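Escalation from tier 1.

The customer reports that the assembly of two entities below gives different structure tokens on two consecutive runs. Tier 1 could not reproduce it. I'm attaching the input and our single run for tier 2 to review.
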Amino acid sequence: MLDIKIIRKDIEKVKCAMLSRNQDVDLSKLVSLDMERKILVSQIEQLRVKRNKWSEEVGKLKRENKDIPRGFIAGASALKDKIQEQDKRLLIVENQIEDFLVRIPNIPDESVPIGKDASDNRVVKFVGEPKKFSFKPKYHWEIGEKLDILDFNMASEISGSRFAILKNEGCDLERSIISFFLDTHKKKGYKEIIVPYLVNRVSMRGTGQLPNLEEDLFKCANDDLYLIPTAEVPVTNIYRDCVLEESSLPQKYVSYSACFRREAGSYGKDTKGLIRNHQFDKVELVKFVNPETSDEELEFLVLDAGNVLELLKLPYRLVLLSTGEIGFSSSKTYDLEVWFAGDGMYREISSCSNFKDFQARRMNIKYLKNKRRELVHTLNGSGVAVGRTFAAILENYQQEDGSVTVPEVLRKYTGFDVINSRR
RNA sequence: GGAGAAGUGGCCGAGUUGGUUUAAGGCGUCGGUCUCGAAAACUGAUAUAUGGGAAACCGUAUCGAGGGUUCAAAUCCCUCCUUCUCCGCCA
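Tier 1 run:
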């Protein structure tokens, strides 16, 4: 959520920011609502001052056992009605302001390239060389099904499309990737935390999934709970309505969770394999930081995410997203795109964002700065998506005979070096 | 799922016949006096949000949350949430 003061002070800046996101937001409505609110508040306060004085007077007279002048109560009563009436109006106006404000996306950072879509993203660097194969590399779902470690037919019978079942060494590989990610990040000072997969509406609103992105969430209507689309939601919410000590910042968390997304509006896109499923595993990194350091903390976050790919020897490129591509709550986002040998493409495997105070304002997460309470900055990034890593390993480590070599750093977790066909 | 109890400032804890409560008192924290220094003692300060003001300061709201009754609510009424205890069920 944006600070309404920014809109009061520099409405042009906000308008430009929205335009750069291809969003045409009519802020004049908000401004007039804000004006109305201000007038109502001052009117109500004046009425209350009057009423408080009258009440005080009544109390004083009662205590002294004196008579209350005729019409005194009636006058106060009229005042009360007026206050109630104005209060009702104020509530409506305040709700409208809130409703408006909560749907306005974050202002992109100045360093974010202006652009309409992905073609305006800026590729920052390439890390690692894609391997040259002496044969035509296969897709991961072909490799996985042949090795009997992936089963999409079985999954669609049980649940539907966009689900996967892991079998045999696939299970070991999945768990190994998760453990490897967690251990690596913990060495860098991230604290592991395991959080609920079902969260309430308030939490979803806090990180910005609600109200705008509701259609992409699985909802348990009976209990008014949502399945998390990422561990970011529960992890960032752990400090909702909290005041942190300045010396405790930055606070860094790593969390493994399953993630659930409806993928509404992505029909026909990545329909095969592990790339875009309704349920997938992810290891997420979340930071709460001093606002002065959030820019550099984003760079560190990107390095930490990239580090696990480098250790796995998976080639990737780093992309700075353009204003038209960054997410609703983000002010700046880097994507890490890993190499998929099957179709020779880089695909997103991690998204690292600096939200600045956008989420912190929604969640009321503050820290003590010289005895004053200030909003923290929040960041998060995938560290990294587990299912996509699984897929990338199959495609990049495949051998001509159909087997898959296990990346060296994973071997102490899997306990085997290669996945061979059992047929 | 059923029954009961509770929720007051950073913490503990008074206040429930509605009106000197602008939330007592204590602890903690910060400052001052005293001291070579410290402790003790004494003394002052010590919530958040928001509006006005250059500032001092002033106004308003907040006693789990939201409604209601009333001239006036921590106090009365309703709904919800959370925690604890007991019973039932259960990995």
